[in-house]
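Homework help board

Subject: predicted structure for assignment chain

Our instructor gave us this sequence and asked us to write out the predicted structure in token form, then describe one feature. I got the tokens but I'm not sure how to describe them. Can anyone check?
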Amino acid sequence: MFEQSERDRKRKDLICELVSDDLYVPMKEKEMAAFMQVSKEDREDFRRLLRELVAEGRLQVTGKEKYQKPDGSRIIGIYSGTARGFGFVEVEGRDEDLYIPEDKKGGAFHQDKVQVELIPGSHGKRQEARVVRILERGLKQIVGIYEQCENFGFVIPDDSKVGTDIFVPKERSKGAVTGHKVVVELTSYADERHKPEGRVVEILGHINDPGVDIMSVVRRLELPVEFGEKVMHQTDRVPAQVQDADRSGRTDLRDLQMVTIDGEDAKDLDDAVSLYLDEEGLYHLGVHIADVSNYVQENSALDWEALERGTSVYLVDRVIPMLPYKLSNGICSLNQGVDRLALSCLMTINGKGEVTDYQILETVICVDRRMSYTSVKKILEDRDEEERKKYEPFVPMFEQMEELAAILRRRRHKRGSIDFDFAESKIVLDENGHPIEIKPYERNVATKIIEDFMLIANETIAQHFFWMEMPFVYRTHEKPDPDKLMKLSAFIRNFGYYVKLTGEEVHPKELQKLLGQITDTEEETLISRLTLRSMKQARYTVECTGHFGLACQYYCHFTSPIRRYPDLQIHRIIKDQLRGRLHEERISHYTQRLPEVAKHSSKMERRAEEAEREIDKLKKAEYMEDHIGERYEGVISGITQWGIYVELPNTVEGLIHVSILSGDFFYYDEETYEMVGRDTGKTYKLGERLTIQVKGVDRLTGTVDFMLPEEMA
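My token output:
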């Protein structure tokens, strides 16, 4: 995907130069090939380059199959289908999706890359458009439930956005029977007269078999599980211990007292911390990050695989790692008592939380203790005598860490950093993959220490490279959307709250102040959610535009190279700079490579989040299946035209459908975010507490239905 040769790039630029020339007259492929003197052997390659340029939006094809410069009237985006037939097209850089009526789809299928043109004078809330050309098919495979008929079968897709069943000829069913979860490869797409057709390429198992639900999501989102032969061959050649040659030229920090602090079940330990206080009262904080780039060489099979995956994916019953376990849990993991290679950010921090000096070094380290969040919490928060005695030599350092973390947090808070503290949960499964418990995951003093130390290291690294004016990958978070801010501002006035807007913008401090005011109030969850929804998603970029949520100008991800590709990429840049290798050719290389790395990493991060969210939803629904008929108290977390969403203390969310709300005809008031009774005026508001009864569960879709107890017959 990323290995586009320099030759390809130059040829594409030449084609674009040709079509941009004032004297250029639109040509067909054959005419263009003849004009550019493309040999017969290179014609197929030339055709590929033209297709790619059209897909990239750099060329446009007319109805007569002639190539020309894009005229701006046609827009390129990704088509997203719906179960009801119509669809939307998401266009990069455009805030609102375009609405595509069912009769204007032009044969587009969910996830296709399409060229659209706007329909002038369209009515309704969204701008309407029609698909004029399908540039690239997005979905090649679909996961769903197989249904067997006498002479054929069909697959009902798990993803309702696909909007249609897939026809499967009997001879292409691979022996699948009704109730099997299958992966079907599309052999033809739908048109006006035919359903899409496919062939079964994998049978995941019966829908009720353990693990099939999780694998269905993994396959649907095309998460790569197994590593290829080339990657594993390279992994086998990686040493199990640090080699003497690798220690050469590195700063030896093995005598520095340091620890890792992670969850009990973590195996890929990529950050260690050290701290001491000098006579002048200055804190010397060391954040030591596994030097993964020493073992994953740029452009190796391992590197391309890690880039393709973008991130490790943490699912309820497994981890799909970015790197093979021999690396992630072995030589790259900062395990206790063994030498490891690291990149260390050594910071001197004063009592105000300001970094007064820092060094970035290639180091050799040896972690003294592998600590857990639970254990450090016992030492610092619970003052557990047994735990304090067990780790006696480290207790003074932990207490200083607690002090410094509090100082750093106060400083961040002072500048306006926004801290959302929503309830998170951990789903516990039995040996058959069945959920038996949903436990709350609470942040404590230990998790906050690590969070605060990683944040200051990431800021320090980002600021260093920003002022060096070198190509880099930043973690940016844009300012909230003005329209959403105005809606939030209007809504919170109903509760007596106010945020100061400067024009159409808000300072993060204003939102932070708002979250402080609503702490421990009935409307806290409601307003926190609406505030979060008004904000944009953080992403990776090559421009340093700041991080709104953290209220800082410079930020990057440096601290997790085992599980995030941008961090690994940053490590390479750091090492090139430390070794004096950032010459003109290398800078040019990064300038070309990094925009695609940033864009793809952001996309893979979204995919991982979607997988984690989908699987949590499925397992929560399966858990509630054992609790049908039981009563719980929850909070209204969302209201739509089709009903009221209620979230329980265990983070399970369910829907009370509008059709079963008795006593009146209820409708959704968009202005006030309320469900209102037409005749009685009775309202259901976001944040309101409700006692509900579990009505039913659909394990296949991961949905939970609630009802009000008085509705029970």
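Reply (TA_rk): Your tokens look well-formed. For the description, you could write something like this. The chain has five domains: 6-68, 74-136, 141-209, 229-474+552-613, 628-711. That's the kind of observation they're looking for.
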